[in-house]
Write a structure and sequence with these properties.
The protein contains 14 helices and 12 strands. By secondary structure, it is of the alpha/beta class. The chain has 2 domains: 3-137 and 307-347, Response regulator (Rossmann fold, 3-Layer(aba) Sandwich), CATH 3.40.50.2300; 145-304 and 370-374, 3-Layer(aba) Sandwich (Rossmann fold), CATH 3.40.50. The strands form 3 sheets. The chain has a 6-stranded parallel sheet with strand order 2-1-3-4-5-11, with helices on both faces. α1 packs across α2 (27-38), α1 (3-23) crosses α3 and α9 (229-243) crosses α10. Mean pLDDT is 91; it is low at 1-38. It binds beta-D-glucopyranose. Beta-D-glucopyranose (BGC) binds next to loops. Beta-D-glucopyranose binds at residues 52, 54, 128-129, 183, 187, 189, 227, 257, 284-285, 305.
């Protein structure tokens, strides 16, 4: 992620905020509220890791948008290490943060920090990933995670020719060998993506149009701790050695995240898959290196979650809380965190294929044509 990209994201958030202020119930009141709270108004933003470009984009977009709205920001990344994230959140509270925006590494690990926040009247917004097992989560901004899973499975079916991109029946009949990957089990989203995907694939599995040759069809078997690329590569290598040593071929792989997809693609390439018979591999986040792989015809699809919109939404919610009002939710039933249903605002995602990279990612200013061509931000 380079400075140009950050600037573009910042501009996107500022624009989104501007639009929100203009189209909302009171453009004037929204901006007055933010500027009057600006003095001394520190907001803590806790992000999981910098190993994935999406979280860098999220962090920078939230930070830029909050600053543009007049707040001070403490943005911290936790290297996917739970004690580090707990410590960073503790520190934000000690530093006097007025509100916390948190994308948790382990959705269950922050209860004592959140209690400390609640004791001081600090509102907590769960960002992208639900924080579980605590009553002290005030709001959740995310994408429709079940639908992301549906989209991932749909793109697998499209790639195999069982569906067309418009959702009608495709010309292919199968059967096809597929393998399934899931995300990190300590991330609440992983189960949502998996459920959306499996619900979509189940009729094809039942009809044996899709066959999971390894037999690994439980989320516990498919899960990749911390969404780690190398762990995914190793699992794919093991699957190929154990289930495909008889000369049979894998035709498709359901992958929930671009980093995992890159691990899978490396394993497949090392095993000799190439060209037209390269398996259909799905993904998520439209990370730049994976968008290039899609443009090159290696990875088949990814899900595009516009992090600029998520950041802007988090800021709208933060501003509502800081002004003492109740933020608007568009879902008050899906996200039970084990203690309560957390009011949520869900955004919509899109499926990226080779032929809509231009429209979804380049025309929207998310990536430039040069970045797609080079695979580098
Ligand atoms: C996010 C995904 C991301 C994954 C790995 C999930 O919580 O919703 O967008 O691919 O984490 O970082």
């Amino acid at each position: 992620m380079n400075t140009k990209k950050f600037a573009a994201l910042a501009a996107g958030v500022a624009l989104a905020l501007g639009l929100a202020a203009c189209s909302g119930s009171g453009a004037g009141s929204a901006s007055t509220a933010s500027s009057s709270k600006a003095a001394g108004g520190l907001i803590g933003v806790s992000m999981p890791t910098q190993t994935s470009s999406r979280w860098i984009a999220d962090g920078k977009a939230v930070e830029a948008g909050l600053k543009a709205a007049g707040y001070q920001v403490s943005l911290q990344y936790a290297n996917d290490d739970i004690p580090t994230q707990s410590q960073q959140v503790d520190q934000m509270i000690t530093q006097g943060a007025k509100l916390l925006i948190i994308a948790a590494i382990d959705g269950t690990a922050l209860s004592s920090q959140l209690q400390a926040a609640a004791d001081k009247g600090i509102k907590v917004i769960a960002y992208d990933r639900l924080i579980r097992d605590s009553k002290n989560v005030d709001f959740y901004v995310t994408f429709d995670n079940y639908k992301v899973g549906v989209q991932q499975a749909t793109s697998l079916l499209v790639g195999l020719g069982l569906l067309t991109a418009d959702g009608s029946k495709g010309a292919a009949t199968g059967p096809f060998n597929v393998e399934l990957f899931a995300g990190s089990l300590d991330d609440n989203n992983a189960a949502f993506f998996w459920k959306g995907a499996i619900d979509t694939l189940q009729p094809y599995l039942d009809a044996k149009t899709l066959v999971v040759k390894s037999g690994q069809i439980k989320i516990e078997q498919a899960a990749i701790l911390r969404w780690d690329q190398e762990t995914a590569q190793k699992r794919m290598e093991n699957l190929l050695t154990s289930a495909y040593s008889d000369g049979s071929k894998v035709n498709g792989v359901l992958s929930p995240y671009d980093g995992i997809s890159r691990g899978i693609i490396t394993a497949l390439t090392n095993a000799g898959y190439s060209g037209a018979t390269f398996p259909i591999v799905t993904g998520q986040d439209s990370e730049i290196d994976s968008v290039k792989l899609i443009a090159d015809g290696v990875q088949f699809s990814s899900i595009f979650k516009d992090t600029r919109k998520l950041a802007a939404q988090a800021i709208v919610v933060a501003q509502a809380f800081l002004k003492g009002s109740t933020p608007e939710a568009n879902d008050t039933k899906s996200y039970d965190n084990g203690v309560k249903i957390v009011p949520s605002f869900l955004l919509q995602s899109d499926i990226v294929y080779k032929d809509n990279i231009q429209k979804l990612l380049i025309d929207s200013g998310y990536w430039t044509a040069a970045q797609v061509a080079s695979g580098q931000a």
